[in-house]
Structure formats: structure tokens, C-alpha cells
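Sat 14:20. Reprocessing the chain from the morning session after the first attempt stalled halfway. Input below, unchanged.
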Amino acid sequence: MARFAGLLTLSLSFSILSTALPAGTHLQTPTDFSTFNVEQWVPSLDYVPHKQQATSLTSSMAKSNKDIEPFLFQFKTKLPVPGTRLLMFLRETSRAMVATKEEAVEVRLRIVPASSAGASNGPNRASHSMGTTGNLQSFIVGDALNPPTLKASANLPSDHIIYGKDPSLGGTINFYIGFKNVIIDSTSVAASKSITLLDWTVSQATQLTNVVFNMPTYSNHVGVTSQYDSNSNIILNNLTFNGGAIGMELSGQQWILKGITTNGANVGIKAGAFQIVCLDCNLSNGATGIDASGISGSLTVIDSSGTSLGNMIVSSNAGGSAPNSIILENVQCTNSGSTVSLNNNAVLSGSVTNTWVHGNMYSGGATTPAYEQGSQVTTPRANVLLGANSKYFTMAPPTYSQYSSDQFVNTKTVSGLPVMGDGATDDTANINAILAQYAGCKIIYFPAGTYIVTGTIFVPAGSIIVGDAYASAISATGSNFWNPDAPTAVVKVGNAGDVGVAQFTDMLFTVADVLQGCKLPLATWDSGTRISVSVVQQARKYKPTAMALPTSAKPPGACSI
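Finished this time. C-alpha cells:
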């Protein structure tokens, strides 16, 4: 896993970044599982869970590459926790990744080896010998206070700046990939050149959030595409597209697009999928806001707006069947042509204050749908679900960059309550003690590591917990989780009747054994629950380095410790 933060608070020149895949090559080679030894990872049918406690775990412990010490990036990161440093197990070839504020560097030859590095006692990540769910891909995380710019040079020879997808795996088995807090810039590339800034043909357990795509206006550039293979994305959060021919060119199974802003793109979103939901999206200054012609199921647009557009939504006429159904709920359309145009015929103009449906609709208790060619209906909204302006409450994935360093507590540096996160030590009691002590007062940070627990971790109301992009794992083991007739939670959030904040960001909840009676975990961002055979990674201990952020903010319900 590669992570880039404060060192990238400058403009970087990418002349050949995407040449990891030859220009024009989009066909993907299916994974050959015929040589994958499943038996070494999957327990036999008569397997009995370890009768000893966590200290007797037999999982092989991954170690950092023996030829280097983990390289310390000089982070000015979102998690300014005194006493911590991020552990990056990079090969010697990746050490040169630092860029100073005084220089702009060509970084393709530095980032690519870093994202391929594996453990010294394990395979290179590019070998895929760990299968799909066992292989952690790359996470690029920028400084949330001052996002880095990845800028394509004018002579970029390829048709993409960044391939988010691993080209040797199919799109539906590209997991554990992340990209956030970064600006991608193609404004130095000729407007006439056809180029895509980011290929995002990936699937579950991926995150794309808080990214800005800057493209020349009236250009052939595309911000994000997923055109080169089947894929199964879930959600894209808080992305901004300036200029370009198309902001987002999507195909796949299902998408939730939340907090998307397009400004000056000829087509804001070219949507192709089974189902797409746009929530709190704002599209402006273009010919078309959303081209829904490629949707085989339905497009639902909620609490969104279109401003200064030729047409807000264009599509084909479904002609009496479900494909290309369109549902609009609380959609504002101003200074534009039609709100919905089907086959170049305007069928709706102006704003929709409640709900408008074109397509199949069940109503009045009917068991079969009726085809509607533009019906206004009322959709009740529960007050408890609403935020500002009577919209459904939404929240951007938090970066916590507004909080100063003294508002964080590092679980590995609390005096008298040692927490190891080494994949072997039972950390249950001390994690629970730290959570009880700092709930409502501090943001609790779990550095990269595997935290073995043999009992339930109780998260009190008022807790904010953050980790390092799928590298901070709460991993359960032991007899407390064996009984399928009386399942036990690994993580329990609050008690019945509790009221307060509960947030998880960048955490992984998993198991270190076969646990028939295990239940895995209120608000979670970029976090995952995984039940599979896990190779526990051992983190070495290194001397800590402090990091700082502004001191003006305190977390909700802050108190003195």
C-alpha cells in the first residue's frame, strides 16, 4: 500500500505516469485461478478453532522488506497524532519518492514501484498469488489541508494520466483501492487530445473521494471513466470536475454519486449502468447535465440542481418498459433548457419540488407496475432524515483536518495502557479502556496494524475512530466468538437509548480464525468488514515523529482530559 500525504503539497509533473499500461491497451487479461492453491488458505471441514488464546496464532506474520527501514514521509497529514509515524514497507527502489517544496518532479518511476512493493517474506503484489481479496492494492491519500496536484505534462504520450484499475485483474475483482484528497490536472495537455484523467474500472472496497479534476474548457478531456471492463462500484463521494468534454463517463452495475459538482463540462455525467442514484449533485455551465441514454434500469436524481445547461437530463424514450426510467425528487433547474429531454423532445421544464416519474411505477397497492410518462407524485420525508433546506441529511467523508493535533489520541501511545497492534498480542482490555476514557473528548486514532481482540470492543456514544486506509484492522479470535447459537459482536456501538456521535473512518473489521458465533459492526466511511483467511501483518516498532495541524477546532462534545 502506498500513501502520499504532506510531501505532495506541490505541483508534480507526470510525463509518463500511465505507461504502466501501454497507450491504447484496454483489454484485460482474466485472472488464472487454476494455479491458485486454495487449500493453503481455506481450513478443512473438520477444522477446530484454536483452543489457545491470541498468543498462539499460527498465521504467518508479514514483515517489512529487510533491505530497508520503512521510509518516513514528512507528513502534514489529516491525522496529526503526536508520537506516531506511518509504517511504509517500501523497497529500496521506492525510497526516492520524496519531493521537496522547491522542486517539481517526474514521479511515475517513483510511485509505480512503491505501489508494487510487497513484504519481504511474501510475494510481490503484482504476482497476485494472494488471490483477489487477500491482496491489498494501492491507496493514494493527499494532504486534506493542502491537496497535492498531479499534473500531466504537455507531452504526455498516453491516453490516461492514472489507471486506478490493476490491468492484470478484471474490473469486478479489483478491490481495496483508494484515491482521495488529490487534484488531477490536464490543463497543460492540448485541448484537442483525447485523454482521460482517471480510469476507475474497479469494484467493492474501493474509495474515490475529495478529488478535483481540472481540464481545459472546450476540450476532448474526460475526468473519470470506467469503460474498459465490467465493474461493480458502490459510491463516489464529493468529486469536482472543471472543464472537459465529459466529467464522468460511467458504465457498470450500480452507482451512487453523492456530492458531485461539474462546472464547464460539455456533458457533466454520461451515465451507463443498471441503476444510478445522484444525491446532492450540482451540474452547471454545459450542454448536458446527465446523459442517461446508456442506463438499462433507472436514473434517480435527489436533492440536486442544474444551472445554465442546454438540457439537464437527456435520454431515450423507454416506450412502455422499465429501461431508461427516470425519477426526480426535489430537483432545481434554473437558467437552462429542458429539465428532461427524451429523443430530443422536451418532456419536462423547470424545477421539481416533489417527485416526477417517467417509467414503471407501483402505486395504490398495485402488485404490477403501470407505465407513467411523466407523473407528479408526493414522496413523504421523515423529519429525522432531513438536514439543511429540507434536503436529506448527507455528510462528506470526514478528513478531520479542522482539528488540531492535541485533539487526537494515538492508541499505541497511551501511558499505562499499552496497545500493540502487532497481530499477536491480545489488545482487548486496553482498547476498551482507551475508548472509555476518551469518548467525547478526543478523536481516537488506530495506526496501521492488526489489533487482536478476544472479546467485544465497546464503542461509547461520542466516539470518533480513524485508522489508516484498510491497514488498521480489528481482528477477532478466541472462544468468545465460537458459539453460532449465541453470536457475540466484535465491535458494539453504544447501548440501547444512547444518543451521540459514532464515526469510523479507514478501519477494517475482520477475524483471525473460523468464528461461527461472530457478529461484525453507526456511521462508517471507507471502512470494511471482511470474513476470509487473513495473513496477519506484523508492524515493527519505530521511533515516533510528531505532526501538527491548526489548533482552532475541537471535536463535538470536547472536554478536558
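The first strand starts at residue 11 and ends at 14.
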